Amino acid sequence: MENKIPLFLKKWFKKQGDYCPKDQLDIFIVNNFNGDMQDEAIAFVDQLINKKWMRQITKDKKEFLAVTGYGIGMLKKLV
Q1: How many other C-beta atoms are found inside a 10 Å radius of the C-beta of residue 5?
Q2: Which of 26, 42, 58, 66 would disulfide-bridge 19, Cβ 3.0–4.6 Å?
Q3: Within the chain, which residues score under 50 in pLDDT?
Q4: CB 19 within 8 Å of CB 12
């Protein structure tokens, strides 16, 4: 699981400030994880936010996750 999510995010995040629609991440989690694994995937994303790899933003009344400079560096190390 911890490799699937960074691979998904890497498609959206190329440089600091890039963002991913939260609904796209939610759809990815629903389609790729079942039951308790969905809860674990959500907890993993929350950890990335708490570790300052990403931050939640609102743009045009939609929710997004934006990657930080630190997060871009860490994602490159993971995948």
Answers
A1: 21
A2: 66
A3: none
A4: yes
pLDDT at 67: 96
- Rounded-to-integer distance, Cα 31 and Cα 60, Å: 26
Q: What is the pLDDT of residue 66?
A: 97
Strands across the sheet containing 62-67 = 19-21, 62-67, 54-59
From residue 63, alpha-carbon distances to 9, 34, 47, 77, 79 in Å are: 15, 23, 18, 26, 25
Q: How many residues does the chain have?
A: 79
> Beta-strand (E) ranges in the chain?
19-21, 54-59, 62-67
Give the integer Cα–Cα distance in Å for 43 and 47: 6
